[in-house]
Structures are given as structure tokens and as C-alpha cells.
Amino acid sequence: MVDIQHTYIGDLTLYLESPDGIQYLLSSEIGESDNDYTQTLFDQEATSAIFEAEAPFTGSFQPLQDVSELYGTSSFGTWKLIVNDLYVEDSGQLLEFTLDLCVQGIPLANSDDDSIVDENDNCPLLANENQEDIDGNGIGDVCDIFSTRNISLTKKNTSCPEKDNGSLTFDARAEYDYNVTVIGPSGFQKELIFTTQGKTLEGLAAGNYDICVRANSFPDFESCFETQITAPLALNVQAILNSSTSILDLDLSGAESFNVKINNETKTFVQGEKVQVVLSQKTNFIQVTTDNPCLGVFEEWINLGENAKVFPNPVSNEATLILPKARSASIALFSGAGDAIWESRHQATNNEVVLIPMNQLQPGWYLIRIDYASYSETLKVLKQ
What we know:
0% helix, elongated, four-stranded mixed beta sheet, 28 strands, Immunoglobulin-like, single chain, mainly beta
């Protein structure tokens, strides 16, 4: 039954749309300049047709299109009344739309008010319209709390070796409230509640976690398991130089790929790939990075010459002194007048870089004296 207030009712076309999306024409451009549909009932069993009636069409009328094919079908779903106003000069409003259904037989029990009666429903007490049953045991997922595939856990590992940004996400198929206890490393313990909407526990460090899930609705239900949140390895670089051939071998680990910069040239290598380069300069700068900045950066200067190098020059804060490879030395900083200011003893290691503090010194010229086992050298540096 429809109740429409509208001037010049002949402007309107009415359709009934079933839950299957099929449209049935009820009325179209009938009534000319008269007004309104008032308490108009479209009934296939009526004795008069709508096109024979006069506005405001009060009473029961057959629609323009036969709707008897709907007999015997399910009424479950959304029914729509579609009103098209074909002209813009007049306007109105829909006051009422109701749908009266005639059913046959005895209604079967349907406790959860979905479209499936209890005797055919794999979960009669909880609405389970799609009847999903992932493990095929005849019990619908939304109520099968004891299914081995009910509880699911998704983990995210930490992004950095020392960063606590891992997470655990809990989900369930059965629609109940769950309590979960999480016990982790360094005395970590947390309890939380989750549902089928899921819940994420964030800010977790790398380590082993013991997890137990329970539900108040089922005292006998308990699902316990273990998982591990891992952290990426730190960047590890082993640099081995063959002094006689100036060939540098790099052993790289800790990432899937590595960006290796030798002086001004950068190349990318994958884990396990052999990295071997010939150092063509007297003083060489090696830098290794990854796509994950938190894994760290490896840097090393390799001086193949007999003399040390210093930079920057002029210097503002610290002077970087690069000693010849595998040379022990005594290092001293003097003022231009010859006064000793700073000294250090350097043992031969894989890192031949010495930082000389100059930030507190007055501007002017300074001397760096380097004494090796068999010879000495002096470098001149300007403090800005």
C-alpha cells in the first residue's frame, strides 16, 4: 500500500523492487492533472486495474505488471518502492509505503531471525546468514568456539634490533567475548579482551611469548600457544684488505641487500653475493648501508699510502686524521709556537681514523706530529 502526496499525479511512475533486484511496474503516468495516491493497494487479486481507476486511487487495484510470479518465493530481504517523477514542474512526498505478505503453512522456528530456520541452520542461536563452516564439522563458524580454526594470531616483528615496536593481533570466528593473557620476556605480562572485531597488542619487544585465550561463556574453553617476535640482525661488515694487491673483500650480513659506497661510486649487493673491489686511490672511503636505517652504518677509511691524511682543512671542530693501513703511531698536536696541546697513542687496528679535538682552540695554524716505528711526519692544519 502506498500513500503519496503530489500535484499532477500523472508525472509519476511507480515500481516495486524485490530482494532479488527485479522491478515490477505498478503504475505509470496515470491520473493526468489530478492529485495524490491515497491509501492505494496494489493487489494482483483485485477486481479492477489501476489504469481503469481515477485519482486519488483509493482502494485495491491490479498493478500494470503481473506480480504473480512472486508467489511461492521467499520474502526475506529488502523490498523497495521506486517512485520516478518524470517532470520538474510539480513536486510531492511519499507519506507511507507498506508491504503485506500472505504466507502458507506453519512457520518453522527461527531463533536467530536470519533467513534460515533452526532445523536447517548450522548455528540456530546466532545469525549466520552465509552458513560458513571452515572446518566442515556441521557447526557454523560464528558459534563453533572449540574449532581449532576459531582463534587466529597475527604477529609483526620489530623493525629494528633495539626497538620495541612488535605487535600481536588476535581474531576469532565465533562471536563471543574472549580474555587473553600474554606473558613475554623481561617480566612482561598483559591481559586484554577481544571479540570477532579483533584486538592488537602493540609496543612489544623481541622474544618468546606465551598466550592463553579463554571465554567466560564456556568455562571449559582454553586455547594456549607460543609465538616469537623476532628482531632484524644488526648490520655486520667484515672488511679484509690484501695490502699487496689493494683488493678489498667485504663479507656482508644482517640484511637482504646492501648499498656499498667506495669513494664516490655506489653499488647494490644482495646477501651472500661476493663483494671484491680494487682500491685505486691512496686514501679510500668505504660506507655500507641498507634500506633499513636502524640497522646502522658501516664506515671505514683505508689509507694505502705511507703518509697520513687530515681533513677538513681548515677545521672548525674535530680534525679527522687517517693513518696509513696497519700502522701504530704516537700522535701529538702543537700550537704554531711549538707548545704541546694534545697527544694520543694509536695501535694498529682495522679502523685507522683518529679524531683530534680542536673546537676549544683559538683560530690559527697548528701542527700534527705523527711518530711511526721507523719514521715521522708533520701535517699543518688551520683552525677557523
